[in-house]
Structures are given as C-alpha cells and as structure tokens.
Amino acid sequence: MATYRNAREFLVEVTARYRAIASYSDVGVVRPTWKSDPLSCWFETQYEGPSSFRFQFIRPHPYRKLRHLLTKYIAGCDGNTAYFVTEQRGQSPKVESQESLEMAVAGATGISQGTAHTIGSLLLECVGGASLSVLQRPRFRSARSFDGVACYRVSGVFPHIGRFTLWVGMQDLLPGAQPRSHCSLNAARS
C-alpha cells in the first residue's frame, strides 16, 4: 500500500488512476450529513472508454410519507448520442436527447447530490466544472471500512458548494473492491 505526503497528492493519484481506466463499474450511495432527515441517493456507474458512459441513480420522493415512491434517472452516452432518462413509477420513461455527454451529466448533477459530476469528472475529461483538483483544504480523515472494504477518507471544501468527504478503497484507489466497487460520498455544509 502506497503512502502519500498529503491529501492533495493522493487526489492527484486517484484522478490519474481513473483516467487510465478503459472499463469501469461501481455502485454506491451519497448521503448528505447536514440534514436531520437526509435522503440517500443510490447510484450505479458503467463506463467503457472512451465514450460509452451510463450513470443511473435512484431518489425517493422528498416528502416523508411518499418516500416509498422512487424515481430512477439515467444520464449517459451510448458512444454516439447523449441522453437523460427520467422514470417514475407507473409512467413511461421520459427520454431526452442531450447535445453532449457533459450536458447530460450536468443535468443529473443537482438531483444526484453531485455524484454524477464527481464520478463523471474522474472518468471523463469532457466533464467540466468542480473536480477533485479544486477541492480546498483537502485533509485525510481516519481510515474506515465501507461494506468490508478498507477505505481512505479525504474531506475538503468545494467552493460555493460546501464540505465533501470521499471514501476510496486503499488497495486499488478506486471506490472499494473489484469487480464491483462500492463508494460512499458524504456531503456536508460548512
């Protein structure tokens, strides 16, 4: 297991590791920690470089009594056409063509609690905006396990967004273990 002088050096290595990947998949969850009743966002990523990307996530209804109603979203590109899909229970999926994969990911960013952008910007150079390279005051936190995978934890602040903690598998610098890794992204307002 490698050692790192600081969290910034670690984040550069994580980004380089992602950009070198030809094929990738993961499942994970993002949980906001600033809310007394947080809504988790479960996600799944599938990537076949250089341009086939599919990011699916599920969100419960924000009203507590309707939390059993889930909406599934998919942002991606089949290699040629970028798209954004919304699928609500009992309705036909709404498929929207997007002008680019960057725009499809941008459309998913807010409702995925930033996860679509975080994962997309690690894998794809075309996804602009706030990436791990602009994280301010990155610091290592105590290592912890997530689904049995030993993880580094790095927290910092995204400008205009707030505190952010990334959990990354210690063995492979990917979110968790192979072949299907697990990732937890926690967002907290400062």
Give a quick summary of the entry.
By secondary structure, this protein is an alpha+beta fold.
Describe this structure as you would to a colleague:
The structure is a single chain. This protein has 190 residues and is an alpha+beta fold. It has one domain: outer membrane lipoprotein receptor (LolB), chain A (Clam), CATH 2.50.20. Helix content is 16%, strand content 45%. The chain has 3 helices and 10 strands, in the order αββββββααββββ. Strands 6-5-4-3-2-1-10-9-8-7 form a 10-stranded mixed beta sheet, covered by helices on one side. The radius of gyration is 16 Å and the shape is globular.
How is the secondary structure organized here?
Layout: H1 7-19, E1 23-32, E2 41-48, E3 52-60, E4 70-78, E5 82-88, E6 94-98, H2 101-109, H3 115-123, E7 136-146, E8 149-158, E9 162-169, E10 181-188
Parallel strand pairs: 1-10
Antiparallel strand pairs: 1-2, 2-3, 3-4, 4-5, 5-6, 7-8, 8-9, 9-10
Helix pairs in contact: 2-3
Task: Supply the key terms.
10 strands; alpha+beta; 10-stranded mixed sheet; 190 residues; outer membrane lipoprotein receptor (LolB), chain A
